[in-house]
Amino acid sequence: MVEQTEAEYRERVSTEQIIGRKRWTIDGSLSSLPSYFQPPPTLPAVQTTARYDVVRNISEVEQGSFGRAGLSHATLAGALLHGLKEVEAWYNTVAPGSGTPIHRHSCEEIFVVLKGSGTLYIAPSNPDQDHPGTPQEYPIFANSTFHVAGGVVHQVRNTNEHEDLQCIVAISKPPMKVFMYKDWFTPHNAAKMVFPMFWDERCYQTHPKKDEL
Amino acid sequence: MVEQTEAEYRERVSTEQIIGRKRWTIDGSLSSLPSYFQPPPTLPAVQTTARYDVVRNISEVEQGSFGRAGLSHATLAGALLHGLKEVEAWYNTVAPGSGTPIHRHSCEEIFVVLKGSGTLYIAPSNPDQDHPGTPQEYPIFANSTFHVAGGVVHQVRNTNEHEDLQCIVAISKPPMKVFMYKDWFTPHNAAKMVFPMFWDERCYQTHPKKDEL
């Protein structure tokens, strides 16, 4: 996982814009592309998914917290695991008191709440403000649905101390890249870019070392 | 809804290619564009969605069969109803013995089966064949997931005579346009294009007639 501030990210993008959005071909290789066009240099090539069942039992899909307390995530069908290019679906369980970071992403996202309840926080739309600002709060509940447009700063939390919150989530344009905020008053350009997502990291693996014998 | 064979569709596309993928500007109006670039002429402008709740109770989302026996469909979050551009989610219930047509679409599709069971039929991949051919069959069941890549001919049926089949479906690139096959031996170029989808038709409405008084 690579973290950088949005300011750092924008600086890179600006540099790219200055040179006319062309590929850097100083040494003629793909690795001379700006890093946001490809896996960061610390992350080798993606592990392609060689085999998976056409129909998968969700109970048997690998789930994990991926270092996030209170999270259980399973990618039901996705870019890195199954080769999808346009849409990805997750099965997420969030423990009481836990939730997503305050974050935004350019992709669209649809939630279907299967079980439990909680709160959706959405930043007000105010393009003149350099930070999200105090969010609006919406109760979410079993058998509810909502979506988040691209670029909207939001957070989903299990604010029900008695029950897990279970959701199916569909996103566009996988794999997801997010910008995370420390709080609702963090400037947009200080949000930290996180890519790949915690659960996508396992799909990037180092090339096996050559056997020295 | 407009139906045309793929041959007719391809003929239009070819004509468009011949003239260099330029807009037809014979009369200088947008309506002179080939019809596949816009709602068919019988369908006026899309009804934009003025208002919807941020969080919606799925039980209260409008559901309907839209003329398809054995189907109950609800668009949870979509292009025409909610302004999404990249992903759309449905809640579909299929009665015993019913199912989707044999069809294909260029978008990607992910299914999550919530209840019931049935069968997924997938055409073999054989680019040299002019028709789908006898499909492979896969049992689907509650708490299972599967996806269909763009362009793959498939069908999902409730083959359990005792129980409804309930699924959440996520698609990319909404609104969906499909090509439907009469059977697995229908030539690809005789598949009928259907657009808009049955449930999207209500989003296209005629302009209100002017009050003659």
Automatic annotation (TrEMBL), chains A, B:
Species annotation: Sesamum angustifolium
SUPFAM superfamilies per record: RmlC-like cupins (SSF51182)
Keyword Signal among record annotations: yes
Binding, Zn(2+): 103, 105, 109, 154
Entry GO terms, CC: endoplasmic reticulum lumen
GO biological process: auxin-activated signaling pathway; cytokinesis by cell plate formation; positive regulation of cell division; positive regulation of cell size; positive regulation of DNA endoreduplication; unidimensional cell growth
GO molecular function, one term: metal ion binding
Signal peptide: none
Protein name: Auxin-binding protein T85
